[in-house]
Amino acid sequence: MLSSRNKFKALFFGLFLFSSIAFAQRPIYSDSTSFKDRLYFGGNFGMQFGTITLIDVSPLAGVMITDRYSAGLGITYQYFDDRRYIGGSSSTYGWRVFNRYNVLPNIFLHAEFESINFDNYNLLTDRFERIWANGLFLGGGYFAPFGGGRGGANFTFLYNVLHDNLRSPYGEPYVIRVGFVM
After folding, report:
1. Minimal CB count within 10 Å: which of 110, 128, 140, 166?
2. Of 78, 62, 76, 34, which is closest to residue 143 (Cα–Cα)?
3. Which residues, if any, are the signal sequence (predicted)?
């Protein structure tokens, strides 16, 4: 039986091989494609369960700047529950900006800055305080197109280089997202 680490490696390798035969996103030519046709909409939905539960709904809007490069904006709403503390559940909200570069037709690099407002437990004052926390997520992912259209699913694996265990709504610096675009 494969360990979870080996399963992850096998899944990633399989997605990499599949990407070479899958259809790429619709080509963008700046002189022949209107701005409206270069826009795309979608979002992420993320979940983390355990001692810390996190449910993330994050719609986004982006624009293809070149065939390989896109950028966009998004908002985030999250439900957060930390079972280690009574009253440790709350809602959070925030915004983000992102950049994405396709290194292969279906494999991309992703960079994102996010700012989230949430109730953070302060050990010194022994109470929850509303704070803004920033994250800088770096990583990559896989785009799986749906049919012959321009829509599809994104599977993104990110690492928050600004992660702080005492000031973050995320339990770990690693974040896995599944998002959809159309």
Report:
1. 166
2. 62
3. 1-24
* Spatial distance between the Cα atoms of 88 and 82, rounded to a whole number of angstroms: 5
For the chain, the 3-state helix, strand and coil shares in percent, each to the nearest 5, are 10, 55, 30
Nearest one of 111, 26, 114 to 71, comparing CA atoms: 111
Q: What angle do CA 176, 142, 153 make, to 5 degrees?
A: 80
Alpha carbons 98 and 121: distance in angstroms, whole number:
28
For residue 4, give the H/E element and its range. helix 4-19
Rounded to whole angstroms, how far apart are CA atoms 38 and 66? 9
The confidence band for 9, taking pLDDT boundaries of 50, 70 and 90, is: very low
Yes or no: say if 128 and 103 are a contact pair by the CB < 8 Å rule. Answer: no
Taking domain 4-181, whether its CATH number is 2.40.160.20 is answered by yes
The pLDDT tens digits of the residues spanning 107-119 come to 999 999 999 998 8
Per-residue buried b or exposed e for 25-60, using 16+ beta carbons within 10 Å of the residue's own CB: bbebeeeeeeeeebebebbbebebeeebbbebebeb
Q: Which pair of tokens denotes residue 159?
A: 């690492």
Using DSSP's 3-state secondary structure scheme, residue 102 falls into strand
Q: Is 161 helix (H, G, I), strand (E, B) or coil?
A: coil
Helix (H, G, I), strand (E, B) or coil at 36: helix
